[in-house]
């Protein structure tokens, strides 16, 4: 905490119970090149859940979660010309990078070894970063993106992490070409965005889900072309060898061999879900058919802006359930039970942040 900094009111988890409650702290005073943002909405990503419950073993309590921020600029520091007070902007998973490494130099700053995460990260001054479950964030202009006016600010918030995390590898691996067949594993926050982008790209999209109850919505409202229940061996077998690419968004331990069997020869699987339990990858599952497995971590700031612009043009936003901060602990329990269609978003500006739940 910076002494004499800007007083901020947020909600934090204090221990691995993950229970959130009001928390007062201070942020750095706006510096040259910084943008001060009043938080309007912040999505609840499954990563927030992994972190506040210390499932990845890296929580630095108190943890103020939140890395899917849409807000309005209230002030800018010297040298900021790209943004002005009143602009609607977004902040995602990271808020700084070194600017000097090979990843930063090639536009892949999301892979910078010194990446500063928006929440539960370590800032250049050694402070633990605090996320968007708070009334104000102060972020360097280079890590702020513009949110198209055509998008609703609540539905746009999940684009800042869930959206770019699926859009970026789809662009990188050519899984954005009309007529190609995309498999989306796990119909949650990330998964439903992958379905929307896949359909906007003109692809054939198949959802592979552990929840038979999601079939109707997947095929109806979300516009997927087919729906497979992952534990139905007959359905999975019938679709073997049919997909050009698969985005695996599953948040819990699961078998990936049956998923790899869905790929065509030389098909591309992209793992974005981050279960704490290791995935099992027997060599035969990728040797036969020359299949490829890659990981992907969010996307660069340029990818994020391109994704938002694309979403703005095509009217793509997340399907959200907007809740007050006083509901956040219930929302997290429901997210853990896979009971959300398809993203909780906290109405931060509309919540009384100092009221205990
Ligand atoms: P989410 O909304 O909870 O969605 C995850 C989906 O996984 C669920 O909707 C469910 O879909 C499926 N699932 C859950 N438990 C399962 C189980 N035991 N077996 C099979 N399927 C199961 O989570 P999210 O916010 O989309 O995040 C998904 C994962 O991506 C998390 O691990 C998160 O940390 C990670 N993540 C990674 C990045 C990155 O940069 N790589 C960025 C953001 C998030 P069905 O009901 O359809 O099966
Ligand atoms: Zn996230």
Automatic annotation (TrEMBL):
EC number: 1.1.1.195
Superkingdom in the source lineage: Eukaryota
SUPFAM superfamilies, per database record: GroES-like, NAD(P)-binding Rossmann-fold domains
Catalytic activity from the UniProt record: (E)-4-coumaroyl alcohol + NADP(+) = (E)-4-coumaraldehyde + NADPH + H(+); (E)-coniferol + NADP(+) = (E)-coniferaldehyde + NADPH + H(+); (E)-sinapyl alcohol + NADP(+) = (E)-sinapaldehyde + NADPH + H(+); (E)-caffeyl alcohol + NADP(+) = (E)-caffeyl aldehyde + NADPH + H(+)
Biological processes per GO annotation: lignin biosynthetic process
Functional pathway: Aromatic compound metabolism; phenylpropanoid biosynthesis
Annotated ranges, domain Enoyl reductase (ER): 18-346
A GO term, aspect molecular function: zinc ion binding
Cofactor(s) this protein requires: Zn(2+)
Keyword line: Lignin biosynthesis, Metal-binding, NADP, Oxidoreductase, Zinc
SMART domains: PKS_ER
Family assignment from sequence similarity: Belongs to the zinc-containing alcohol dehydrogenase family.
PANTHER family recorded: ALDEHYDE REDUCTASE
Oligomeric and partner information: Homodimer.
Name the record gives this protein: Probable cinnamyl alcohol dehydrogenase
């Amino acid at each position: 905490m910076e002494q004499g900094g800007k007083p901020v009111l947020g909600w934090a988890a204090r221990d691995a119970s993950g229970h959130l409650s009001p928390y007062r702290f201070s942020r750095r005073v706006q510096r040259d090149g910084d943008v001060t943002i009043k938080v309007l909405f912040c999505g609840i990503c499954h990563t927030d859940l992994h972190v506040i419950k210390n499932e990845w073993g890296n929580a630095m309590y108190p943890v103020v979660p939140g890395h899917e921020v849409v807000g309005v600029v209230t002030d800018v520091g010297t040298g900021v010309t790209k943004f002005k007070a009143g602009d609607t902007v977004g902040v995602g998973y990271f808020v700084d990078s070194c600017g000097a490494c090979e990843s930063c130099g090639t536009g892949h700053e999301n892979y910078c070894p010194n990446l500063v995460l928006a929440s539960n990260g370590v800032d250049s001054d050694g402070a633990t970063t605090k996320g968007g479950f708070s009334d104000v964030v102060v972020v360097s202009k280079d890590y702020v993106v513009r949110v198209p006016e055509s998008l609703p600010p609540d539905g746009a918030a999940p684009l800042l992490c869930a959206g770019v995390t699926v859009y970026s590898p789809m662009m990188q691996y050519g899984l954005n070409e009309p007529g190609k067949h995309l498999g989306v594993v796990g119909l949650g926050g990330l998964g439903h965005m992958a379905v929307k982008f896949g359909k906007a790209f003109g692809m054939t999209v198949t959802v592979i889900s552990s929840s038979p109850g999601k079939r109707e919505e997947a095929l109806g409202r979300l516009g997927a072309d087919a729906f497979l229940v992952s534990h139905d061996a007959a359905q999975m077998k019938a679709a073997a060898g049919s997909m050009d690419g698969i985005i695996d968004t599953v948040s819990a331990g699961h078998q990936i061999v049956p998923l790899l069997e869905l790929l065509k020869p030389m098909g591309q699987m992209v793992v974005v879900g981050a279960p704490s339990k290791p995935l099992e990858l027997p060599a035969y599952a990728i040797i036969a058919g020359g299949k490829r497995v890659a990981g992907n971590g969010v996307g660069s700031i340029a990818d994020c802006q391109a994704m938002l612009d694309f979403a703005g043009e095509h009217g793509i936003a997340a399907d959200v359930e907007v809740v007050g901060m006083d509901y956040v602990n219930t929302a997290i329990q429901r997210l853990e039970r896979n009971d959300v269609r398809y993203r909780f978003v906290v109405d931060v500006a509309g919540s009384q942040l100092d009221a205990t739940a």
